[in-house]
Amino acid sequence: MKRHTDYDRLPTKLKAWLRQPGTRLTATEAEFIQSLRAFAAEGVGYGWMQSVIEMEWDDVCKRQGLPNAAWGPDYHGRRIAELEAEVAQLKRQREDA
In which element (H, E) is residue 95 found? Predict the structure, then answer.
């Protein structure tokens, strides 16, 4: 594993991931993390950043003709609403039986 100079400042889960054989953190990836932290320090919410990343990922999939593989806050919000509607329908069916 290649250690980045700011390794000790990385999130715990990322440090654990980096302990896997063959993984490394590029300078660009470390810069991305630093940028996220800088944006958060300026008041940009992490939820908003996650949504923008999801939208960008979705857009890339569409441009490349790939199925939507973007799983972020928007996807999970839609999925939760779908499942809640399904549960409500099943409850109504059970009550009507």
Answer: helix 73-96
HSE of 67, CA atoms in CB hemisphere, 13 A: 2
Contact predicate 72/57, CB 8 Å: yes
Task: Quick: pLDDT tens for 59-70.
Answer: 988 899 988 777
Domain residue ranges in the chain: 7-96
Assigned token pair, 58: 């979705």
Say whether 10 sits in a helix, a strand or coil. Answer: coil
pLDDT digits (tens, 9 = 90+) for 26-50: 889 888 888 999 999 999 999 899 8
Query: For residue 51, what are the contacts with CB-CB under 8 A and spacing of at least 6?
Result: 72, 73, 74
Tokens representing 65 are 């003709």
pTM, entire model: 0.59
